[in-house]
Amino acid sequence: MVAIDQRPIGRTPRSNVATYTGMFDHIRKLFAATPAAKKRNYKPGRFSFNVAGGRCPTCEGEGFVMIELLFLPSVYSPCPDCNGTRYTQSTLEITWRDRNIADVLAMSIDEAHAFFTSENDVLRSLTVLREVGLGYLRLGQPATELSGGEAQRVKLASELQRAQRGDTLYILDEPTAGLHPSDSDRLLAHAQGLVDADNTVVMVELDMRVVAQADHVIDLGPGAGATADVSSPPVPPSR
Q1: How far is it, in rounded angstroms, from Cα 170 to Cα 188?
Q2: pLDDT at residue number 236
Q3: Residue 189: per-residue pLDDT
């Protein structure tokens, strides 16, 4: 069983779209394979902001520093030393196709999709993220900046890019919340793809357009029952 809810994919700016989906591992290997990186003996870990070495020592790779406020919640501010790039200057000197690792993290998913056209391992994750309507997010966008719906779709994309076994139960909690109808249709197409691959998809959903496409409906709440009409919203009970 795979539960795909709206809980954050991480609690700090260290977590982001690229790391959660696993594509960042492949990107780091591309940078480590460049002639300049090999000459300096830089390994893939050099381009990780979670490992000491190539990351900024001041913010420890977060790109932000936390400022504690009296009587108010703490806030994050861009690191004064790396200016939010997360890395040391020596690490940023290594480029792949004229872009350094910080430039790549600053790309939107749509931009990265065009940039990594020949890298199938990276392109697989980017393609699915675009198809669930997240092409506008940055690869390095901190988890703390994602809405619940965006976090849920990142989780869904991570599942969709994996090989499907055909015997998995997927539970989605209001996956179309805040989506444009066209993006909802794309999301439903992926859900149908999971069903066609002999998986089971259970959705908690309020959008009647989505409910109308379900094979089975369990109607809960005011006005629920065997005679409920999914083509129109339920009528609230009279007082």
Answers
A1: 13
A2: 58
A3: 85
* 170: enclosing H helix or E strand: strand 169-173
Cα separation, 15 vs 8, in Å, equals 10
Residue 80 has pLDDT above 80, yes or no: yes
Top-tier CATH class for 13-145: mainly alpha
SS3 220: coil
Residue range 124-131: mean pLDDT, rounded:
91
CB atoms < 10 A from the CB of 79, how many? 19
Contact criterion met (CB below 8 Å) for 157 and 20: no
pLDDT at position 65 over 90: no
- Specify the amino acid at residue 131: E
How far is C-alpha 130 from the geometric centre of its chain's CA atoms?
A: 10
Cβ atoms of 55 and 45 within 8 Å: the answer is no
Q: Which helix (H) or strand (E) holds 11?
A: none
Domains of the chain: which residue ranges?
A: 13-145
Instruction: Give the CB-side neighbour count of residue 129, counting CA atoms within 13 A.
Output: 28
